[in-house]
Amino acid sequence: MNTLHVNIVTPDGEVYDGDVRMVVAKTISGEIGVLPHHVPLVTPLDISILKLRHEDGGRTLIAISGGFMEVRQDTVTVLAETAEAADKVDYDRASAAKVRAERRLQDTKLSDLEFKRAELSLKRAINRLNLKEYGRD
Ligand code: ATP
């Protein structure tokens, strides 16, 4: 078989279910490309864009907010905290979230936890906005 079955699931439900030629994902230790016959693997994923390359050369890009990816017997399962394809992202909302997080990060009285939360919120917003940029090439 020359395809991988991909299933992307979030707490809100299934976001993607289909066969692809390759998956490119950003793990916390770097980018990884998964092709058919890949060795079994379980890895945490970064807040990043998951790239699905289709058999016809087209691709689907999905913004994910962390989670895990499991590769087993030509099946790739992604359990993500959130996952949105480019046409599902509300870019105005992401821009507003970015501004909010940036403002929050300027507050010098934030606790470490509050700072970390604002940083992650900024990272999620930038990641969603990046999807718009990617969609252009
Ligand atoms: P916000 O502050 O705008 O809620 P957030 O990063 O805190 O952003 P999340 O906690 O990552 O939001 O996501 C909460 C839910 O809202 C998830 O279901 C996620 O898919 C959805 N979501 C968040 N931001 C967007 C967006 N810009 N466009 C579409 N869906 C979004």
Automatic annotation (TrEMBL):
Gene3D superfamilies: ATP synthase delta/epsilon subunit, C-terminal domain, F0F1 ATP synthase delta/epsilon subunit, N-terminal
Positions of the ATP synthase F1 complex delta/epsilon subunit N-terminal domain: 4-83
Gene Ontology MF annotations: ATP binding; proton-transporting ATP synthase activity, rotational mechanism
Domain ATP synthase epsilon subunit C-terminal: 89-131
Alphabetic keyword roster: ATP synthesis, Cell membrane, CF(1), Hydrogen ion transport, Ion transport, Membrane, Transport
Major subcellular location class: membrane
Compartments reported by the entry: Cell membrane
This protein's GO CC annotations: plasma membrane; proton-transporting ATP synthase complex
Membrane topology: Peripheral membrane protein
Highest taxon above the source species: Bacteria
UniProt similarity note: Belongs to the ATPase epsilon chain family.
Function of the molecule: Produces ATP from ADP in the presence of a proton gradient across the membrane.
HAMAP family: ATP_synth_epsil_bac
Subunit structure, as described in the record: F-type ATPases have 2 components, CF(1) - the catalytic core - and CF(0) - the membrane proton channel. CF(1) has five subunits: alpha(3), beta(3), gamma(1), delta(1), epsilon(1). CF(0) has three main subunits: a, b and c.
PANTHER family xref list: ATP SYNTHASE DELTA/EPSILON CHAIN, ATP SYNTHASE EPSILON CHAIN, CHLOROPLASTIC
Protein name: ATP synthase epsilon chain
Species: Exiguobacterium sibiricum (strain DSM 17290 / CCUG 55495 / CIP 109462 / JCM 13490 / 255-15)
